[in-house]
Design brief:
Strand content: 15-25%
Radius of gyration: 36 Å
Number of helices: 3
Strand order of the largest sheet: 2-1-3
Distance between the termini: 41 Å
Number of strands: 3
Order of helices and strands: HEEEHH
Shape: elongated
Helix content: 25-40%
Length: 134
């Protein structure tokens, strides 16, 4: 039971690591002066409404946008069975065949006296008759 739980938790952890190592996302932040106005992940950031317009050619805008891009791993290589050499293919095939053959179940055995309850013993007959197996 403990080994099964350990296997399941480790496989979930490995799937979680693969998922998040390949995930890419951006974090956008909008600052007005030194104050953080909005931060957004996976969407556009809301601004404060003081963007540069046509009249601000003389004055520099106090707003700025920061974009942080977190790149995930994109160099995963998927191998197929044909990428293996002949010896590895034979080893893999024999391993899979022997592993699958472990789970072939036996036919269900019929127990004829399954519903029979033995009689209650009031005394030990072997002790009464003084008959012992040596």
């Amino acid at each position: 039971m403990k080994i099964s739980l350990l296997n399941k938790s480790l496989s979930f952890l490995m799937a979680f690591i693969v998922l998040f190592s390949t995930l890419s996302f951006t974090i956008e932040s909008h600052y007005c002066g030194n104050n953080l106005i909005d931060t957004a992940v996976f969407s556009k950031v809301k601004n404060c409404g003081m963007e540069s317009s046509a009249t601000t050619l003389i004055k520099k805008s106090c707003c700025k946008d920061e974009v942080v891009v977190v790149q995930g791993q994109d160099q995963l290589k998927l191998n197929t069975f044909d990428d293996l050499n002949v010896n590895q293919q034979i080893l893999f095939t024999s391993y899979v065949y022997s592993y699958i053959s472990l789970f072939i179940s036996l036919p269900k055995q019929v127990i004829p006296n399954e519903g029979y309850a033995p009689p209650n013993l009031f005394c030990d007959i072997q002790v009464l008759d003084e008959t012992f197996l040596i």
